[in-house]
Amino acid sequence: MKFTFDKELMQKKISVAQEIINSKSAGTILSNVLLIAKDNMLTIKATDGSKLNFEGVMPITIEEEGSTTIYCDKFNSILSSMDYTGEIEFSQIKNEDNNNLISVIRPIGKKSTTKLKTMSEKEFPTFSSGENLPYFKISSKEFKDMIRQTQFAVSDDQTRFFMNGVYFEKKGEYLNLVATDGRRLSIARQPLLAGVNDFPSAIVHPKILNIIMKHAPEEGEIDVSVVEKMIFFQFADYKFSAVLIDGLFPNYESVIPKDQPNQFQVKKDDLVSSLRMLSQMIKTKKEGINFNLEPGNLKLSAFNIDYGSSEVEIPCRYAGNNLKINLSLQYIEEPLKEIKSEYVVFEFSDERKAVTLHSEPASFYSHIIMPIQSE
């Protein structure tokens, strides 16, 4: 096996592979990437062995075809440490001590050689490349926007594993993404599926969605397929697949408020800066901030027996009765980071029931938050 490759292109692919590999797999075949050199193309495969898989391709110049696996993290570190841009030669030779194959990495034109131990490609797990599946296309930009508006609401409670992912659902021509931890729910709806055949609803692991967020293009389309217990994504020269989370996602539609006659509207920047100051008075961001409403004014306050108290007043478009709603700082801050509008709206029926937060004007997403009840 012998070929030359472009350093920057290889480094980009290997870095993606490293994101897939489970850090707990060090020293095993799962800490390696599979390299297959054939027809002047290099196929790079990585897997965590249970949930996530990656396949990427890149052009190379082959002198001798072949395949092997090498330790991904070390290969990535070697490439990163090279003060060199350009072509690098990759070859395999026999170790004189034990006759096993080792990989040799040598920048073209440089007096530098690195040797890495290999493991046989026969030990590398097999996984589907997703060929011949019923793919459909969705807008990359809009899909990434939907992930941004939902992924932070995923539950981290491992005993409620069915809420440890984002629900991926087709409703007519709409794609719905939903996430909840039982105290808040985020939902994004986009009409991205016109003409797309029905497919089974799925609970998608947030790690694969984070990877899609990071590497999918801002423009163009993503190919998606949901089959049996897997979801597949393809774009550019990347292929990803992930095992779906097994379980029954909660009936989220039953908790979406149907009638919320009251609302108040505030400037997003005013609210964000106020919450930042009030956060100094609470120990954890899951604690509550008091929203004290009166016509034309919102008084925000926080109190801690060990630290003291803090209070901020900001203008507010509100014409109802005076009342107080206690909301988790975390549950307000996380969606606010993703909302881009100048104003935000809070809709509610009374101070004890769910509050709906969305942009003004309303967009394709909304965030439903349960108030903290006073003891």
Describe the fold and architecture.
α1 packs antiparallel against α2 (72-81). The model has no long low-confidence stretch (mean pLDDT 95). The protein has helices spanning 7-20, 72-81, 140-148, 206-215, 268-278, 329-338; strands at residues 2-6, 32-38, 41-47, 52-59, 61-64, 66-71, 87-94, 101-107, 114-119, 136-139, 166-171, 174-180, 184-190, 202-204, 221-227, 230-235, 238-243, 262-267, 288-294, 297-304, 308-315, 323-328, 343-348, 355-360, 365-369. It has 375 residues and is of the alpha+beta class. The chain is built from six helices and 25 strands. The longest helix is centred in the first third of the chain and has 14 residues, at 7-20.
Summarize the topology.
Elements: E1 2-6, H1 7-20, E2 32-38, E3 41-47, E4 52-59, E5 61-64, E6 66-71, H2 72-81, E7 87-94, E8 101-107, E9 114-119, E10 136-139, H3 140-148, E11 166-171, E12 174-180, E13 184-190, E14 202-204, H4 206-215, E15 221-227, E16 230-235, E17 238-243, E18 262-267, H5 268-278, E19 288-294, E20 297-304, E21 308-315, E22 323-328, H6 329-338, E23 343-348, E24 355-360, E25 365-369
Antiparallel strand pairs: 1-5, 1-7, 2-3, 2-6, 3-4, 4-17, 6-9, 7-8, 8-9, 10-15, 11-12, 11-14, 12-13, 13-25, 15-16, 16-17, 18-23, 19-20, 19-22, 20-21, 23-24, 24-25
Features:
42% strand; 375 residues; single chain; eight-stranded antiparallel sheet; 6 helices; alpha+beta; 13-stranded antiparallel sheet; elongated
